[in-house]
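quick one: zinc ion bound model?
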Amino acid sequence: MSFVETKGVVKRKCNNKENLCFTHINMITTNTHPQRFHLLSFWDLPDYMKDNEYILRYYRANWPLKHALFSLFRWHNETLNVWTHLIGFFLFLALTLANLMKPRVADLLDLFTRSLSSSAEKNVSHSIKDLVLGTTLLFDLKNQVPLTVELESTATVIARWPFFVFLGGSMFCLLSSSICHLFCCHSRDLNLFLWRIDYVGIVVMIITSFFPQIYYVFLCEPHWQIIYLAGITAMGLFTIATMLSPTLSTGKYRAFRAMLFCSMGLFGIVPAIHACFVNWGNPRRNITLGYECTMALSYLTGTLFYVTRIPERWKPGWFDLAGHSHQIFHALVVVGALSHYAATLQMLDWRDSHGCDMFL
Ligand SMILES: [Zn+2]
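yep, here:
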């Protein structure tokens, strides 16, 4: 069924059922058993919720917040949209907690406490490293600077905050998206507000994704860190201000918003190409690039599903509950974020072991 034909069917049905629609909505508001709200068809929806004409049934509309909250455990056409990003949120929360508690962090704490502890404990620790790094240490003795000290200072210098900024940004995006899909059925005002927050979440995720890569790739060239991080943050803040502005978030400025998103993406290409040159001799280049390409492919494919509304446009009504484009888009966003996480771990691990020593 073509696009025009589908629209025709929807319109016809809506015209035919005008009285029925009215009765149906009336029945909901005066229901003697308000615990169980009915799910509506596309042609029964208030205008502010008519977004995808290829999803025909199982809509919630004008539900109280409490009912919207409990619809988390009920089947409707937003159930999987909520859960795909809610599971993603819990996944990233678990990764954040695991990274906060992982041995590398414990090592840093250990370095800190060890510097305050007895010299006897230090000697044991150093003697183990001397055993491993004996030859190199001999070279360094000429300069009176033992390599062990250099390694320790490197380990303490590698900051974790850019990594956690990315994890925080991803969690914010995934959680705000879940909340948006869960409560957007409440009222027109809340619907408009939540979709704005959802856009902001996407921008936050894009900006924060840049942080660890730019920080760790250009760790030894702080001027590039500052230029790129300040640039992407300024662009992100401007985009967020635009998304939150009631005027600029109207349909009239859709092209302008699209241009802002594209600008952010295009801006990212500059440090990405620069990073490739900087890391050309890095033995982990291919694996990091592989993860980043998986991320780019996931986001691009997800956006393609989002824009084309495939597969529901091919068979309207067949994918109302499961398998429609927005669910595929959500799943691919989580895959993309996980790939970026894996790439970041590679970069972080390499910096932890090498500091500013290039490509050893
Ligand atoms: Zn969504």
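Residues 81, 177, 181, 326, 330 surround zinc ion (CB under 6 Å).
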